[in-house]
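Progress note, sequence design subtask.
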């Protein structure tokens, strides 16, 4: 990939072309001096020339303007000057580079914010199909990536460039560990290939980036995948003479095959196989090489049916992987709200089951489920709880109730992580109330009676009265089943 190189020396312009000669431009002396001043951060000269009506958008033989030089050198005061005087933001040099590409390359977040605020095209591509995310990933500009993805939410920038490389592949090719980890956290890991059939693993191996290869191997297992030249990552490392990486890959090749049959069935979403293995008493809590249980994998995939089967079978919910994360934390990180709620229901159910042995077996038969409840029997109480969460509880009050009902701090944090914004507490509260309802119904207790008494005891007398007044329930909740 062509990399922007703006450390070129000042070279006098060639003789002027004939008037009829199109396609290549020559700077006037004042314009040349203006560009050089921008390059050297000389505001005084720029001010003087501006007063002489110099063309601030003049381009040199490579179609670069003063703005290109100012941004490439991270001269903030010059950038401010050019923005103030309405210099053009959209001019591309002969390689299609605009100033926003250069800001992404240099990683200067202050300049990037100024350009975006001034209206720079955030989705501009150069002639090789690269946008700001590609340039930032290629040059390890982590703050720029965070700005575009987390602040501006421009996730559609995560596309292949003209060579079929997404930002993740470019970062892997360059060996940028910080960028790789950041993109993985942002869920932008990909095992997709470029136009030559290379995965991120092939590209990292080609350049001998051992640390990146090690990180990548934690994300997927296909160590022997071949590119279009029928080369694996190991063969590529051998061809390029990366001896330490070759040794590492040979050792890793032996150690990688540590997923149990149950892990593999979960990874491939084979529900019948999962059930068959569990019926055969396969170890539901077996660990793979990343210290993950099958539940960790199912939670990360967001597969409700797989998670349901594993939770009902009674897997260990407290096991942490090599990064210290429980399955709940994995689901929360992956933004799988339904899975988060299911795991919390299971945690509370099994905790209560341990405390009250008599409670346990009634709920462990056909009626036991941790999935979202859509039953007609519970429609009215669910509606009342929704009204409580969305129209009556104030911010933070749902947490007070959650703590009263012995939700753990980890459970509360996991619920909070799925939604953000000023009104997100309403949905957080609603989810918490439905999780609470799940436990009450499994214990065959009356939820209307419980919610009234608990609201009073927790200090919400006025809300308790509203619930009682609104709840004209003509059904026996003791017969409610969880669907």
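Output:
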């Amino acid at each position: 990939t062509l990399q922007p190189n703006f450390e070129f020396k000042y070279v006098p312009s060639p003789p002027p072309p004939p008037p009829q000669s199109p396609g290549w431009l020559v700077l006037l002396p004042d314009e040349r001096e203006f560009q050089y001043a921008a390059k050297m951060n000389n505001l005084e000269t720029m001010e003087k020339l501006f007063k002489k009506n110099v063309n601030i958008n003049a381009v040199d033989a490579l179609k670069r303007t003063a703005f290109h030089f100012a941004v490439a050198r991270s001269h903030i005061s010059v950038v401010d000057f050019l923005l103030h005087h309405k210099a053009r933001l959209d001019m591309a040099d002969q390689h299609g580079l605009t100033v926003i590409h250069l800001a992404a390359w240099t990683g200067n977040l202050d300049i990037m914010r100024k350009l975006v605020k001034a209206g720079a095209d955030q989705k501009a591509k150069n002639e090789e199909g690269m946008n700001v995310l590609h340039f930032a990933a290629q040059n390890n500009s982590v703050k720029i990536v965070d700005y575009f993805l987390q602040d501006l939410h421009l996730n559609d920038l995560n596309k292949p460039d003209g060579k079929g490389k997404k930002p993740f592949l470019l970062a892997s090719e360059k060996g940028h560990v910080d960028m790789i980890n950041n993109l993985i956290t942002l869920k932008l890991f990909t095992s997709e290939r470029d136009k030559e059939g290379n995965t991120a693993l092939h590209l990292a191996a080609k350049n001998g980036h051992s640390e990146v290869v090690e990180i990548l191997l934690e994300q997927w297992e296909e160590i022997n995948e071949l590119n279009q030249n029928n080369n694996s990552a190991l063969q590529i490392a051998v061809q390029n003479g990366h001896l330490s990486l070759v040794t590492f890959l040979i050792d890793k090749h032996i150690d990688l095959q540590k997923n149990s049959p149950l892990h593999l069935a979960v990874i491939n979403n084979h529900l019948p196989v999962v059930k068959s293995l569990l019926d055969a008493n396969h170890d539901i809590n077996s660990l793979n090489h990343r210290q993950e249980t099958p539940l960790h994998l199912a939670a990360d995939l967001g597969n409700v049916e797989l998670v349901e089967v594993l939770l009902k079978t009674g897997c260990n919910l407290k096991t942490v992987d090599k990064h210290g994360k429980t399955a709940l934390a994995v689901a929360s990180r992956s933004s799988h709200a339904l899975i988060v709620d299911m795991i919390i229901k299971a945690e509370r159910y099994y905790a209560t089951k341990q405390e009250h042995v008599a409670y346990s077996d009634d709920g462990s038969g056909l009626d036991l489920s941790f999935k979202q409840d859509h039953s007609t029997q519970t429609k009215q109480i669910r509606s009342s709880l929704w009204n409580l969460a969305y129209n009556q509880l104030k911010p933070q009050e749902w947490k007070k109730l959650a703590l009263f009902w012995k939700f753990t701090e980890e459970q509360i944090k996991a619920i909070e992580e799925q939604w953000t914004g000023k009104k997100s507490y309403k949905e957080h509260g609603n989810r918490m109330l439905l999780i609470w309802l799940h436990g009450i119904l499994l214990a065959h207790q009356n939820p209307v009676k419980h919610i009234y008494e608990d609201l009073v005891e927790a200090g919400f007398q006025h809300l308790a009265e509203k619930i009682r007044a609104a709840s004209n329930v003509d059904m026996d909740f003791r017969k409610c089943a969880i669907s």
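The longest helix spans residues 337-355. Work on this subtask will continue into the next period as scheduled.
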